[in-house]
Design a protein that fits this description.
heterodimer; A: mainly alpha; two-stranded antiparallel ribbon; B: 280 residues; mainly alpha; two-stranded antiparallel sheet; 4 strands; globular
């Protein structure tokens, strides 16, 4: 929390000298060593740390790949194959990077659904949440442009389909698309600028991540009970407690990551992207990477192009206003029995939308896409506002300590008068 | 703790669902039969003799129409490949003629191939290839084994994660090469110059005539000289051409996983020790 006083106490002369001039070690100590975290965090709370590591992995492998990659419509495809065949451990770098993108999204989706389940976006963490949605948007842009770089068939046609979305904008649509392309079709100028932006955006993500962590450290973390930290016994120091738990979860995550990198490196990709881009041959089915599929399904659910584009962007835009759509005073789904059911329904809806996004836009798939798209929006725009009014929530524990130790154990440790924390569900 | 565990399981299901919804791609309704490959699974290795036989089929048969533009002669002697000796590869390279130049007088000239050269294309350009092949363009072989994949469908694509199924390409190529048939059903109207093949991705009519027949190529190692064996060998060779570092990758993967699992175990024990005195 921002309130906690610094316990950093430099011992040797050099560190004392530095602390008076640039207290960077103090910042690190206060943020990642003595920083108090709720004592009841579960493994769902370890994905934030993983995400920052994934960003570092993507940037490091990406910088090395960029040393060997050529952003030319004629050479890009073969330069990627040069990396795969001739660069020392180039195959490893590339597979770590491409599968890293997928792992990044797996982690971010768990992280987001964690936030939805435990109501992490609620007051006073609205800005923290919004910064997270900004990072998510930047990630999507980065991943999309990265997928274009190998200049295979799916790269080329994916870029064509997605950039063409902007032509739905009334009046200026066509001009905007021409401006995005730098010409009259996806071609060399498009590839060049996508490469430039693909290199730039991760550093912008890193910047917003710093703001995200800053905002987190101002408000403090939520926890599975959703009850705010009230006393010292509610928390543990970040190190060693959160550090060791995050490290263990990270290594388990790396096991899954390695499974894909070493044994299924092309499982999450599309075979057509091993065919060089050909503007004259359209693939039978143009599908985006798996992490975009739910949004792709929403896009195609609407018969009108502009309507589809608006809904697709709307499906993410709605996340920005989520803190104000959810009217419930209780944060955690653990104490919201009705919301908890709707939460899991929403998870299933999101997965089914992903599956529909991979199917051709015809017949029953379109009808199903419409139903599930309608539900997606209804969850945010109808269910969440109404649930806050009608839902009967369970009584909240008085404190984190009480929820962990049980009522009788916590009495002695509690620093608060017993009446002070009564019915906190009415206070949020 | 139990609610946490159920949540974790639910989260894992979510991850799997999210991750794999994307691979159910309706490319076609084609059914590709899975074959046994020496290079499948976590300890998969290329069979050197098979790669050499596959290379023989490629040079004696396929190379007349199909290029292999990303593979260099030197790759043939690199570890994890067909394992030819340097002398053998020099001899193989010397058999082709490479257009080089310009020389000091500004003239282009032909010279015998060297280790560093890549396999030259049988065609001067795509137009020439199409003109000689009834309008069809014989695809380059370098990546074909990774560029072809049939729909796996639900729930097979979920099981594929655990069985490490990545051999869709060679399975498809083998199926195609052995999928020719003279018995064209009455309701199929064959177009001029096309051939009936029930294992072709884009319909049942393919421009390539059945390229293999029994006893067409002579194997020196006593392997059966059948279409089935030829198809198997050339498919394996194409997998190597598409993924020359496959063996390296799988061997490293095993070491990495063992390390990570031990590391995770140690971290878990440390975590338990750290939290031993704290209820959480």
């Amino acid at each position: 929390m921002s309130g906690h006083t610094s316990s950093y106490d430099p011992q040797n002369g050099a560190m004392k000298w530095l602390d008076k001039r640039l207290p960077l070690p103090r910042l690190v100590h206060d943020s990642f060593v003595s920083y108090p975290v709720p004592r009841n965090l579960n493994y769902a709370y370890t994905f934030g740390g993983m995400l920052s590591i994934m960003l570092v992995i993507q940037i490091i492998t990406g910088v090395v790949l960029a040393m060997h990659y050529v952003a030319s419509a004629d050479l890009a495809f073969n330069s990627v194959e040069h990396i795969m065949r001739d660069v020392n451990y180039g195959w490893l770098l590339r597979y770590v990077h491409t599968n890293g993108a997928s792992m990044f999204f797996i982690a971010v989706y768990v992280h987001i659904f964690r936030g939805l389940y435990y109501g992490s976006y609620k007051e006073p963490r609205e800005v923290l949440w919004i910064l997270g949605v900004v990072i998510f948007l930047l990630m999507m842009a980065t991943a999309f442009m990265g997928y274009v770089l190998p200049w295979g068939q799916m790269s080329f046609w994916g870029a064509t389909v997605i950039t063409n979305l902007f032509s739905a904008i009334p009046l200026f649509g066509e001009s905007i698309v021409t401006w995005l392309w730098g010409g009259f079709s996806v071609d060399q100028p498009t590839l060049n600028r996508f490469f430039s932006l693909h290199y730039l955006l991760p550093f912008m993500i890193a910047g917003v991540v710093i703001l995200h962590v800053w905002a987190l450290h101002v408000t403090g973390q939520t926890n599975p009970t959703g009850v705010e930290v009230k006393q010292k016994s509610d928390t543990l120091p970040f190190t060693p407690y959160a550090t060791i738990k995050d490290a263990f979860a990270l290594v388990v995550f790396f096991v899954v990551y390695s499974w894909f990198v070493f044994y299924l490196p092309n499982y999450l990709g599309h075979a057509d992207n091993y065919i060089p881009a050909n503007p004259l041959v359209t693939p039978a089915h143009i599908v985006p990477e798996w992490y975009f599929l739910p949004f792709y399904a929403i896009l195609r659910a609407v018969p009108d192009k502009l309507g589809g584009v608006v809904l697709m962007f709307g499906s993410i835009a709605v996340l920005f206003v989520l803190p104000w759509l959810d009217t419930s005073k209780v944060r955690s789904a653990s104490f919201r029995p009705t919301y908890r059911v709707f939460f899991w329904v929403f998870v299933v809806v999101a997965i089914v939308l992903g599956w529909l996004g991979s199917k051709p836009a015809e017949g029953g798939y379109v009808i199903a896409s419409r139903i599930f798209t309608a539900y997606y929006f209804a969850h945010f725009l109808i269910l969440l506002p109404l649930l806050g009014i009608f839902e009967k929530t369970k009584p909240l524990p008085n404190s984190i300590t009480e929820s962990v130790l049980g009522d009788s154990d916590s009495k002695g440790g509690s620093a608060m008068p017993s009446g002070a924390a009564a019915s906190p569900e009415t206070k949020g | 703790m139990t609610t946490f565990l159920t949540k974790t399981v639910a989260t894992a299901t979510l991850i799997i669902g999210m991750a794999f919804s994307g691979t159910a791609i309706a490319a076609s309704e084609l059914h590709v039969e899975e074959q046994d490959w020496s290079f499948s699974g976590p300890f998969g290795k290329f069979d050197q003799a098979q790669l050499q036989r596959g290379f023989q089929i490629y040079t004696e048969n396929c190379a007349a129409c199909h290029s292999l533009s990303l593979v260099a002669f030197r790759n043939l002697m690199e570890p994890g490949g067909p394992g030819f000796s340097e002398a053998e590869v020099r001899a193989i390279a010397a058999e082709v003629s490479i257009l080089d130049g310009p020389d000091g007088d500004g003239e282009m000239y032909d010279r015998p191939g060297r280790l560093a050269d890549r396999f030259p294309s049988p065609w001067a350009n795509e137009e020439q290839a199409r003109a000689s092949n009834n309008g069809a363009y014989p695809p380059d072989f370098s990546l074909l084994a990774k560029a072809r994949a049939a729909t796996r469908g639900f729930p097979t694509f979920v099981f594929d994660i655990f069985t490490q199924y990545q051999e869709s390409g060679p399975d498809y190529i083998y199926g195609l090469l052995t999928g020719y048939s003279e018995d064209v059903p009455d309701d199929v109207q064959m177009l001029d110059g096309l051939h009936y093949n029930t294992h072709f991705m884009s319909g049942v009519q393919i421009a390539m005539a059945a390229p293999l027949s029994d006893d067409q190529h002579e194997y020196s190692d006593g392997s059966p000289q059948t279409v089935d064996q030829y198809a198997r060998d050339v498919s394996a060779f194409m997998m190597w051409a598409a993924e020359p570092h496959l063996m390296d990758r799988k061997a490293m993967g095993f070491r990495v996983l063992i390390f990570l699992l031990i590391f995770a175990g140690l971290l878990y024990l440390t975590k338990r020790k750290v939290f031993a005195s704290v209820k959480h």
